[in-house]
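Is NAP placement plausible here? Inputs below.
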Amino acid sequence: MNKQYRVGVIGATGMVGQRFITLLASHPTFNLSVVAASERSAGKTYEDAVQGRWLIPGTIPEQAKSLRVYDAVADLNQVAESADIIFSAVEMQKDEIFALEEQYAKAEVALISNNSAHRWTPDIPMVIPELNCGHIAVIESQRKRLGTKRGFIAVKSNCSIQSYVPALYPISEQYPIESILACTYQSISGAGKTLETAPEIVDNIIPYIGGEEEKSEREPLKIWGQIEGGVIVTATEPSITAQCIRVPVSNGHLAAVFVRFKNAKPTKEQLIDSWENFVNPISKHNLPSAPKKFLYYFTEDNRPQTKLDRDLENGMAVSIGRLREDTQYDYKFVCLSHNTLRGAAGGAVELAELLCAENYI
Ligand SMILES: NC(=O)c1ccc[n+]([C@@H]2O[C@H](COP(=O)([O-])OP(=O)(O)OC[C@H]3O[C@@H](n4cnc5c(N)ncnc54)[C@H](OP(=O)(O)O)[C@@H]3O)[C@@H](O)[C@H]2O)c1
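Reply from A.M.:
I modeled the complex. Tokens:
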């Protein structure tokens, strides 16, 4: 990947947007060229727009500070003309995001979104690069529908499923899975907040995250889907049930997972082997943001831990531990990923790198 690309962020002032700005500041081939947010921030410098609400460890990157913030809606054409790739981290009404992202694609940019608005559009790939990279081929039929030459939309999945689907997907290829029960323990940054800006979570657990359980049960089936007739046909199994809980940690979504297999259950060693020897289908590209090793299995009884392990491989690896037999399901285990890196901005940047390497951008 030596070619240089002009890159923009819409929703650049929010929590995920700020992550994008930090990741792009040190990127070898993506050059931050334009930032946009709401009309509240438009016209200010980026530094002024995020004044008093910079949420990421470290300071605002120098190259972003003096950029003028555009209005992601009103200045769409100017923003689109200034970038080859746009990362979308806007928080608006779903139908507004749906329309806005399509307008950017029609303005011939590659739009990579963190939002859920387009996750169920059948010709839009929802990609965890190490798992279902083949789904990007559906972009050809999407471009025909949109009438674009270069423009398209690709999306990330919800952050919650990125802790447990990466652990289950490689297993399921060898040992078909019948059912999954997942309980997620999700950080406050998943709500765009910090422990300081969300005092209600300190010394507390909140047993409800709106819409999260539905997404956690449904989205894995698109990841497990197949391209047929120019669309992604969602898988009908495994059956998944989820409970999603907000816990008082800053970053990192941990999941406690129970799994039942369709056929004779594999041994514990076979499961660990599927993780430790996972064959990464995109390793040949050596993408700048990809972890050297995607899945880590910890043998210690008290790992993975959110605080200790979320930053593994710059927050892009998934850690797994505590695999043991269960009395009701076949096995249970725990897994963890960083929700704003692997689960949001980092995963989106890696997806854009993959799309460049595969000549979609
Ligand atoms: N936080 C996570 O872990 C996570 C993980 C996965 C996906 N996501 C998704 O990523 C997106 C951003 O989440 P977040 O937590 O970063 O949200 P956030 O902190 O609330 O930031 C929202 C961003 O959207 C902009 N915005 C709001 N209304 C707008 C409008 N009418 N027109 C243009 N821009 C507008 C805001 O600009 P102003 O600053 O000018 O208001 C801000 O830049 C959401 O769609 C969320 O579902 C978040």
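Short version: The mean pLDDT is 96.
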